[in-house]
Amino acid sequence: MDAIKGYLPFLIPLAIAQFALLGYTLYHILTHDHYKRGNRTLWLVVTIVLMGFVGPILYFVLGKEDA
């Protein structure tokens, strides 16, 4: 338990950044209609299943339509 307390100063900001990125990604998917690849349902599933940084980053690299 003491080992976890030593990592908390690093884990808490990382968790906050992860959920902020997830929230922004979900917002962006739900408010836009056009994607480079796939559709809204695909990107919602990918983002939620790969909830860490992987899903949102995949969306912004592969799915987000440049406006």
Q: What does this 3D model show about the protein?
A:
- The protein is 75% helix and 0% strand.
- With 67 residues, it is mainly α.
- It has one domain.
- The chain is elongated and about 50 Å long.
- The mean pLDDT is 86.
DSSP summary, beta strand count: 0
Which H/E pattern describes the elements? HHH
Please state the structural category.
mainly alpha
Number of domains: 1
Radius of gyration from the alpha-carbon trace, in angstroms:
15 Å
Calculate the mean pLDDT score and round it: 86
Low-confidence stretches: none
How much helix is in the residues? Answer: over 70%
- The 3D shape can be described as elongated
Quickly count the helices: 3
Amino-to-carboxy terminus distance: 48 Å
**Describe the biggest sheet?**
none
Measured by DSSP, the beta-strand proportion falls in under 5%
